[in-house]
Amino acid sequence: MKKLFVPFFMLLGISITISSCSDSDDAQYVPITPNASYPEVEAAFGSKLDLNNLSNYANQYIPPYIRKRNGNANPVTDKGATLGRVLFYDKNLSSNNTISCSSCHQQANAFSDTNIASTGVNGMTGRHSMRLINARFAVESKFFWDERAGSLEIQTTMPIKDHGEMGFSGANGDLSFNDLITKLQGIGYYKELFKFVYGTEVITENRIQLALAQFVRSIQSFDSKYDSGRIFVPNDGQPFPNFTAQENNGKNLFLAPPVFDATGNRTGGGLGCAGCHAAPEFDIDPNSRNNGIIGTIAGSGIDITVTRAPSLRDLVKRDGTLNGGFMHTANINSLQAAIGHYGTINLAPGNTNLDPRLRPNGFGQQLHLTATEVNATIAFLRTLSGTNVYTDSKWSSPF
């Protein structure tokens, strides 16, 4: 780590710390050349990608009550996220040129997939494709449902190197990731884009990871009904002035912890959802364990390693339309069913990783939900959905 001291901030007694890494020529360090010509980029993308007039990724509005962040060592930049956008949508990143990151993470569906499993070059994904909304605004810095990637940067190239997904595994007869780099080096627009971002045409896995992670972290959703109300109150516990009585009731149920008797039956309080999905980010608590869903997409065996979840923002579109099934199995197809799952937790044989918050006093929780409570909670969850993230061109395909 090294510290850079800026005279103005020195007067205030503040120092700024900037992370360094092996590819420290990150996007922010390469100045933009005004009115430069990029013929390969212009030929490939036309008006959809203008390197002289970049979209705003780095300085988007973030509400003041949003405090959680991950990925500070790789801050979002306009240039880096622009390259990341191209990589995210480019089918050249798959071995047979048929699959891109966007094939499984579709903007129209909150960057998820309405299919239970997504199609790869050599089969189907083993788990449902996780929504990518507000991935940056979370304490948890590990990725994939089972947290096997230590950072978003590491995660971004793992599907590319997976035999079933994008096919550059270097095993099972696949080409290797180095072969992908050679392939990209032969594409004219990547020569221009990597030089535009990093100062040279050199393509490395690290540079690909930095750009893809910046693009994914730029995907944010803060134009929901929840946000329109939260900005006017000091904390989430206060009634929101723009909410209906039902929505405020649902919010209270979501936030308040339940009261249980000695055998795990709820006798009062709320539903305790915020114990794992704390407002206002609604991200997953990094200490969470299995949520009681132990099935697999294949339908055989059990999977108790899933301990991560995406933000609860944009579970559904604002009109209530699903962005895909819920959970890693995508086998829950409504908000009512999702709430119902937590209403009755069964202690399944073999699930040695069930979260303690779901087994009060050693028993699977029984919330004894009423129809009024379920409907209020659904009404509240729907307030967490925005609209812009589904249509904003800076997150759309440049091809």
From TrEMBL:
Protein name: Cytochrome-c peroxidase
Swiss-Prot/TrEMBL keywords: Heme, Iron, Metal-binding, Oxidoreductase, Peroxidase, Signal
Keyword Heme: yes
Gene Ontology molecular function: any one: metal ion binding
Signal peptide range in chain numbering: 1-22
Organism: Flavobacterium amnicola
Pfam families, sorted: CCP_MauG (PF03150)
Record localization: Cell envelope
Principal location listed in the UniProt entry: other
Cellular component, GO annotation: cell envelope
Matches recorded under InterPro entries: Cyt_c-like_dom, Cyt_c-like_dom_sf, Cytochrome_c_Peroxidase/MauG, Di-haem_cyt_c_peroxidsae
Domain Cytochrome c: start-end pairs: 79-188, 245-385
